[in-house]
Design goal:
Number of helices: 21
Number of domains: 2
CATH topology of the largest domain: pyruvate-formate lyase- activating enzyme
Largest sheet: 7 strands, mixed
CATH superfamily of the largest domain: tm_1862 like domain
Bound molecules: cobalamin, iron/sulfur cluster
Strand content: 15-25%
Strand order of the largest sheet: 2-1-3-4-5-6-7
Shape: globular
Low-confidence stretches: none
Structural class: alpha/beta
Amino acid sequence: MPPKVLLFNPKSCNVKARIPNSILSIAASIDGKYDYIIVDGNLEEDPLNKICSYLSKGDVGYFGSTVMPGPQMQQAIPFSKKIKELYPHVSIIWGGYFASNHSTVILKSGFVDAIVYGPGDKTFPAWLDALENKTPLNNIKNLVFREGDKIIKTPKDELYDQDTLPPLPYDKLNLFYPLYKYLGRTFLGSKTIAYHSSIGCPFTCSFCAVVPIYGARWKAKSAANVYKDIKYLKENYGGSAIEFHDNNFFVSEKRTVEFCKLMLNENIDWWAFGRIDTMDRFKDESLALLRKSGCRMIFFGAETGSDDVLKKMSKGGTQTGEVIKSFAKRMKKFDIIPEYSFVLGLPAETPEKVMEQIDKEISFIYEIKEINPDTEIIIYIYSPVPTEGSEMFDEVLQSGFKFPEKLEDWLNPEWKNFDLHKNPLTPWLTAEMVNKIRNFETVINGYYPTVSDVKLSSFQRKFMHTLSSWRYRNRIFNFPYEIKVLQKYWLRYRQPEIEGFENTV
Ligand code: B12
Ligand code: SF4
């Protein structure tokens, strides 16, 4: 019997957990071949203790953790270090977006043995087999590992046909954590499924973490297979709404339409990420079908109203300020809420230009709200992602910006905030600029409270709206403490961009 594998999903949110698709797809890749245990940091009071209780039995030989930027590192880093200290025979592997984009600093820490960069569906079982059979790792694609003092990165593999991958072992997950705990109430429905139906993205936006990993590639499950899984979760676990977690769900209009047709009688509301220009090319009848099939809201990276900045961001496609506006209007006709995210605080030649650009974005957001007041606005402060060679990243490096040189430095509060796109440590942004962005965000969130927060009563919404109206109308953003206090202590206002939708079980 080969040793067991422990798969860990570090805590990622303070509200209720979602189906841990990263770990689950890795579990699927070894299901039936290796015995595995799942520990979910979102559902454990003391996950390290739980992990150690398994490891102390002596039959676990492998520890795999998924790591996205932000809070997950707060457990992944100290836990992996501790495990290496206490159980040096256990081989440790990380995967996920942070691991993929920062493999060198992670491996240099000495307590992580290997990284899967990109999809792990074939790499992970191949790595286990190689260690079990003592065969070389060099032939395994998508892998980074240490060999003596050297760090070896093997070539990228092709993207796999998603329909040929093994099904996610939902029933097995249910043995470790009852699945109903993952199906929380959101504004979409009482039991919301988190589902991932495609990988990668065909675009190459220079600020996006998907690009260095997937390099403009995208592969999706067929509509029929997605529907089959949704039906399974509906019939066996009562799933009644869906959050699609794909980077870009709507790449294919054909697949979208096929999926919508299958969903017509399911009475399931759903939400997903898309691109404005891609969906603006959808036929009217496809958009109408989307709404009929239950699509309530779509998240779009609007990014900026400036065509020059869109170009600098290599947003690609045909997105322009005008398209962003006209599409907001079009969505209104089909009763689908566009959730537009904007990135403020990009580098520019002079501080005046950085500030000027921030002011322009704020004005653009006002315009969008006038065109379609239902548009949800999400604001990020630009945090660089190392898409080497991109015009924007070169500019970032020239400004003196540097990522931490030691893995544990990512645990410092300022780097945690960097990941959350809240406090970006970027040399070109002054405190005045950051405050302006944050205060504007507070005011607009007060004036237009998000519909995705199911805990807000209509009285609370109205109160917050009225309280914020003089600031919003007169564009006075400084020191909006009265709104902040209300958001924090009274309404416990949440930011969907950081925690996902309000989710209560
Ligand atoms: C769900 C999700 C969340 C949820 C997490 C909920 C949960 N799981 O409990 C919430 C809403 C909390 C969240 C929050 C954030 N997220 Co998030 N999130 C995602 C999302 C949409 C899906 C992740 C997922 O399940 N993928 C499905 C699986 C199957 O894909 P995968 O993770 O890539 O896994 C494959 C490989 O990576 C690899 N792999 C992954 N893990 C492991 C582990 C092992 C051991 C191995 C061997 C392999 C392996 O194999 C898998 C199968 O091939 C991704 C985007 C995306 N489409 O992936 C963003 C994403 C990961 N998030 C991102 C960000 C930035 C954040 C935030 C920091 C938000 C912010 N303010 O911007 C926050 C804070 C993080 C936090 N709180 O921890 C970025 C990361 C960007 C970057 N710079 O690297 C992404 C890529 C979105 C984006 N396009 O920008 N997030
Ligand atoms: S379209 Fe979205 S997911 Fe695709 S590269 Fe651009 S930002 Fe990333």
